[in-house]
Design goal:
The protein is mainly β and about 625 residues long. Helices cover about 10% and strands about 40% of the residues. The protein contains 4 helices and 51 strands.
């Protein structure tokens, strides 16, 4: 009855909405038939569409081809009990699905708003009355109104992969959109000089990521998922991207990494560039690629996103002190000097910049012989093993030490030859030297050895089969073994008494088992079969269970029709295959109507056993011993 009234309601509504008899009724704007992509009705981004899912159809299609990329807002009103609004790409694949939406039963309608991000290409809107949970198709009228917000996109599509990436410059502004039928956009950037690119990013995507890849496609920067402000529907971020004068790729996507959802929407970013004034040619990422510098040079460099260190080769013509005035814009940096065999002879350790100024300056005094060395600069924060990026510069000089007079030692002091004590060796506080004239101002003092800090190395208990170890002792500081651990022999099993698992019979061996009371290990052994002369047989008891039954009669009958050999009979209900049973003995037991004839059982024997089993007639012979 409910189905009848629904159909009746749809017919009435069809008449109302197509005749225009009631003021304010929808004017049907769909062009039937539009029941497939091939027959879709053409609409524009500012259309108002009035349609109906009639009794003889299940869905309507509309074709839309925006002239520009942008966001289409869909204000949808439905008088269908359940409806779905779906967007398909040009291939017919779903790129948006509202899922089943149920109307308000009191008002007989519902209204929804959808934000649909589209590129300047063809899509299809599909409307149907499908209730997905029950697969029912509902009917009725609907209306939707479209409005359009231009994304101001200024980069040509497609740019959905690294091979399709569009070229941009280091001072460009990019307007883009992650549309329903894509998940990411790519841009190719090739700075003419090394330097810092500042990226001011604005996103209207619920979650977005900004990623930089090197020429091989490996990630060298990842902003991680960034969520917009739900009140404003946007967010703004600034990224500082240090690049060499080579090719990189910028990737934008709407991935929320925690749930692996792909969000859509418009975005824009503006680039600005700060020249690093780099004056040493790349690459110089290893000692083999190190670039030559002199003892009075100034070096401007950059640790870019796709590298971790720079190398410079210096070969003084004569022994002397090189003064290094170092300025860094890297959050953490290290300045290291290596000899010709790449052994460290100086390490500034990690140096953190001033967070207010975004830089720091240091001066190092490096005493070099007249041979080759390597200067290495990296952005390593040693405590966390993070690699930071940014600009740096250093100036070298071989200026002579200042002349000191009397006790006025200009230029400050430094400690040399300091050494920390160890467990067994003394340390040294170091000698104090004047940096101005090199004079020894004060000798250091010996620091006593600290001695070992013993800790117990726990032993290992012995088991029944494996040896153990006693407790040992070692130094917790240097790891020296102070007391060796000694082996403890295996204890061996502690077995209980042998217990019968399977009793031996005249037809089969038995089995015994014993168990270790410590570890539960088991041992088994075989027990021999009983002598035949000690076993009493009952004529007709073919399964050796001590009574006559229908089972014995069935077995006799099977023997009679040669389904089973006599020497494979069961003993005590156990497996009978391969048992070494004397065929003559078995035949005699089976010959229930007169065992004096050693013949295999036949149907008469089966009947005799069955009569004895139901006590109609006793067997002629009851027992015998072999």
């Amino acid at each position: 009855m409910k189905s009848f009234w629904k159909k009746a309601l749809v017919i009435v509504m069809l008449l109302v909405f197509t005749s225009g008899l009631i003021p304010g009724a929808f004017a049907l704007s769909e062009q039937e038939p539009n029941d497939s992509i091939a027959t879709a009705t053409e609409i524009t981004v500012d259309s108002t569409v009035e349609g109906i899912i009639a009794e003889d159809e299940t869905e309507d299609y509309y074709r839309i081809t925006p002239e520009k990329s942008g966001r289409v807002t869909v204000n949808f009103t439905s008088h269908i009990e359940y409806y779905r609004f779906i967007v398909k790409d040009a291939k017919g694949d779903d790129v948006f699905n509202s899922k089943s939406q149920k109307y308000n039963e009191a008002s007989g309608m519902r209204s929804d708003t959808y934000y649909i991000d589209l590129e300047a290409r063809t899509y299809y809107f599909k409307v149907d009355g499908l209730e997905t949970s029950w697969n029912n198709h509902y009917k009725g009228p609907y209306e939707f109104t479209l409005s359009f917000e231009d994304a101001q996109a200024n980069v040509e599509e497609p740019n959905d992969s690294q091979t399709e990436a569009k070229d941009i410059g280091v001072t460009d502004t990019v307007n883009g959109i992650i549309a329903l039928d894509e998940i990411e956009d790519y841009y190719r950037i090739t700075p003419e000089k090394s330097g810092r690119v500042t990226v001011n990013f604005t996103s209207h995507i619920e979650y977005y990521r900004f990623i930089v890849k090197d020429a091989k496609g490996d990630d060298v920067f990842n902003s991680k998922s960034q969520k917009y402000n739900e009140a404003s529907g946007m967010r703004s971020d600034t990224y500082y991207i240090d690049l060499e004068a080579r090719t990189y790729y910028f990737k934008v996507d709407g991935l929320e990494t925690s749930w692996n959802n792909h969000y859509k929407g418009p975005y824009e970013f503006t680039l600005s560039f700060e020249d690093a004034q780099a004056n040493v040619e790349e690459p110089n990422d290893s000692p083999a690629e190190a670039k030559d510098i002199g003892v009075t040079d100034t070096v401007n460099g950059i640790i870019a996103l796709d590298e971790t260190e720079d190398y410079y080769r210096i070969t003084p013509e004569k022994a002397g002190r090189v003064t290094v005035d170092f300025t860094s814009h890297i959050q953490y940096y290290r300045f290291i000097v290596l000899d010709k065999d790449c052994n460290e002879v100086f390490d500034s350790k990690s140096q953190k910049y001033n967070e207010t100024s975004g830089m720091r300056s240091d001066t190092y005094y490096i005493d070099l012989e007249a041979r080759t060395y390597y200067f290495k600069v990296d952005g390593l924060e040693t405590s966390w093993n993070n690699h930071y990026k940014g600009l740096y510069s250093f100036t070298l000089s071989d200026r002579a030490p200042s002349v000191c007079t009397g006790s006025d030692h200009a230029g400050g002091t430094e400690i040399r030859d300091a050494a920390e004590p160890t467990c067994t060796e003394p340390g040294y506080t170091g000698d104090t030297y004047c940096l101005g004239c090199g004079e020894l101002l004060a000798e250091g003092e010996e620091i006593p050895a600290t001695g070992h800090s013993p800790v117990t190395v726990p032993g290992v208990p012995a088991t029944c089969t494996e040896p153990g170890l006693t407790d040992g002792e070692e130094c917790s500081v240097c790891g020296t073994v102070l007391r060796e651990r000694e082996e403890i022999p295996a204890t061996g099993h502690r077995f209980g008494e042998w217990k019968t698992v399977t009793a031996a019979t005249t037809l089969s061996e038995g089995e015994e088992k014993r168990v270790c009371s410590v570890c539960g290990a088991e041992e088994t052994r075989e027990t021999p079969r009983l002598p035949v002369e000690e076993y009493e047989y009952m004529v007709g008891d073919l399964d050796f269970d001590g009574v006559l039954s229908a089972a014995d009669a069935r077995l006799a009958l099977r023997l009679a029709i040669a389904l089973e050999d006599a020497d494979e009979l069961a003993a005590d209900g156990r497996s009978k295959t391969g048992l070494p049973v004397d065929a003559v003995i078995v035949n005699m037991i089976a010959n229930a109507d007169g065992f004096e004839k050693p013949e295999t059982a036949d149907a008469a024997d089966a009947r005799a056993i069955l009569r004895a089993a139901i006590s109609i007639e006793p067997l002629k012979t009851t027992h015998f011993r072999h």
